[in-house]
């Protein structure tokens, strides 16, 4: 259970972190925030609740979740100056890397629309309030649900296990549906995603661009999607092992970008660090330098730390030893080295803050609030907006821990 005690417009948030394992893989689940009242008894407004829409024509296209059910999305129509602008948010939620945990996953909302919430909150980059989301509040805003287990990338099946690996078809069916609902007339479009959805936004960025005429302003945002092919605390490569399983189980070899697979093995081409230099569409990378999910499940997962030497550190950075902090600084340095070439391009954007966080665009307190995380006195929302609308170039890279006092760091217990 994680606790974040930070103010948001005078409100204290207490978050509960649920780290669940898909049998032998890892998934970072959502945060649930309990809002307490402010000192004067005022209560913050209830966030916008948006109903799930299933894509009725998807089954005929073979565009189905792991269990064969229809995929879905949530949409809130734009208005005024945003009526012809579209923001697409691809949901995240880990991966399944063995047949066994894909079978388990299809009994959850990450593998079946039968278990998806009928309504979800639109906050952060999805908020409809100008004071919470200054640049995109009146756009058409869509959250595409994630139920394929491979970042919307697979196109195969396992008949014996009754598993459908149809992420690519789900992506195509969702885009076709949204185009029919007015997205074809978009003057501006932004493809975004968080975590596994952040990886998906990278994988599908150039494909998204091709949906629109050249006159449409199209860009992509990846939040907490910069998963690193890092060495874990045991000297192994825990996340590479997971990704290798995802690629193998879902047969992604032929689905990954050929400009990468022509040079590297398929597993390497599921890692964003090997993809971003080939993305032609303007792309913004929003990431915590000490990504909380990657520390928990890639750098120091139980399989790499059987004696629990990292148990306290990975749940509360203040309990890390000097050598553990140095290990995390090396991870940050590897991340910064991986984006050097990417950052040279004037069309790309960066916001790499030195926080112990994960997914900062969907949470109101880290997207845009009175005490949001800052780099050079600018919160995430304004940095993304400045970049998208070409108000100024954004290449914001924080100084190393512990310099940033504005972070909303995650602590689990």
Notes on the protein architecture:
There is one protein chain. The longest helix has 17 residues, at 322-338. The termini are close together. Residues 1-43 have low confidence and may be disordered. The protein has 413 residues and is an alpha/beta fold. Helix content is 24%, strand content 21%. A ten-stranded mixed beta sheet has the order 7-4-5-8-6-11-12-13-14-17. Strands 1-2-3 form a three-stranded antiparallel beta sheet, with no helix packed on it. The chain has helices at residues 99-105, 167-180, 196-203, 205-209, 238-250, 258-261, 292-299, 311-315, 322-338, 340-344, 364-367, 380-388, and strands at 7-8, 11-20, 27-35, 48-54, 72-76, 85-90, 119-122, 140-144, 156-158, 163-165, 188-194, 217-223, 283-288, 349-353, 374-375, 378-379, 395-397. The chain is built from twelve helices and 17 strands. The relative contact order is 0.13.
Quick structural overview:
By secondary structure, the chain is an alpha/beta fold. It has helices spanning 99-105, 167-180, 196-203, 205-209, 238-250, 258-261, 292-299, 311-315, 322-338, 340-344, 364-367, 380-388, and strands at 7-8, 11-20, 27-35, 48-54, 72-76, 85-90, 119-122, 140-144, 156-158, 163-165, 188-194, 217-223, 283-288, 349-353, 374-375, 378-379, 395-397.
How many helices does DSSP assign? 12
Please report the total strand number as a whole number: 17
Order of helices and strands: EEEEEEHEEEEHEHHEHHEHHHHEHEEHE
Q: What Rg is obtained from the alpha carbons, in whole angstroms?
A: 20 Å
Shape: globular
Lateral strand order in the biggest sheet? 7-4-5-8-6-11-12-13-14-17
Look at the structure and give the mean pLDDT. 90
Task: Give the helix proportion (percent range).
Answer: 10-25%
Q: How much of the polypeptide forms β-strand, as a percent range?
A: 15-25%
Terminal-residue CA separation? 5 Å
Largest sheet: 10 strands, mixed
Low-confidence stretches: 1-43
Protein name: Pectin acetylesterase
InterPro entries: PAE/NOTUM (IPR004963)
Subcellular location: Secreted, Cell wall
Pfam families: PAE
């Amino acid at each position: 259970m994680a606790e974040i005690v930070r103010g948001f417009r005078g409100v204290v948030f207490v978050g509960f972190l649920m780290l669940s394992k898909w049998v032998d893989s890892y998934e970072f689940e959502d945060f649930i925030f309990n809002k307490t009242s402010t000192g004067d008894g005022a209560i913050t407004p209830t966030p916008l609740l948006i109903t799930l829409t299933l894509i009725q024509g998807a089954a005929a296209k073979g565009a189905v979740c792991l269990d064969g059910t229809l995929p879905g999305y949530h949409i809130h129509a734009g208005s005024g100056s945003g009526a012809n602008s579209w923001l697409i948010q691809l949901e995240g939620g880990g991966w399944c890397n063995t047949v066994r945990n894909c079978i388990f996953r299809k009994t959850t909302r990450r593998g079946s629309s039968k278990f998806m919430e009928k309504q979800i909150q639109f906050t952060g980059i999805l908020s409809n309030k100008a004071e919470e989301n200054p640049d995109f509040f009146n756009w058409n805003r869509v959250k595409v649900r994630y139920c394929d287990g491979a970042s919307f990338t697979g196109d195969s099946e396992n008949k014996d296990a009754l598993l459908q690996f149809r992420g690519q078809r789900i992506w195509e069916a969702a885009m076709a549906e949204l185009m029919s609902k007015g997205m074809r007339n978009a003057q501006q479009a932004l493809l975004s995603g968080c975590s596994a959805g952040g990886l998906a936004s990278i994988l599908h960025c150039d494909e998204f661009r091709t949906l629109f005429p050249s006159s449409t302003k199209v860009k992509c945002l990846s939040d907490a999607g910069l998963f690193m092919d890092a060495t874990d605390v045991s000297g192994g490569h825990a996340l590479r092992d997971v990704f290798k399983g995802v690629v193998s189980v879902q047969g992604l070899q032929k689905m990954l970008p050929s400009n990468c697979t022509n040079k590297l093995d398929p597993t390497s081409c599921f890692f964003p660090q090997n993809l971003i230099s080939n993305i032609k569409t303007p792309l913004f990378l929003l990431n915590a330098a000490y990504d909380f999910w990657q520390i928990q499940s890639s750098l120091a997962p139980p399989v790499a730390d059987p004696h629990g030497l990292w148990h306290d550190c990975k749940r509360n950075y203040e309990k890390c030893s000097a050598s553990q902090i140095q290990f995390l600084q090396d991870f940050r340095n590897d991340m910064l080295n991986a984006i050097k070439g990417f950052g040279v391009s004037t069309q790309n954007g960066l916001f790499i803050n030195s926080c112990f966080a994960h997914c900062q665009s969907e949470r109101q307190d880290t997207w845009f609030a009175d005490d949001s995380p800052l780099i050079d006195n600018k919160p995430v929302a304004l940095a993304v907006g400045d970049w998208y609308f070409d108000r100024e170039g954004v290449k914001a890279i924080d100084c190393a821990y512990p310099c940033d006092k504005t972070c909303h760091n995650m602590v689990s217990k």
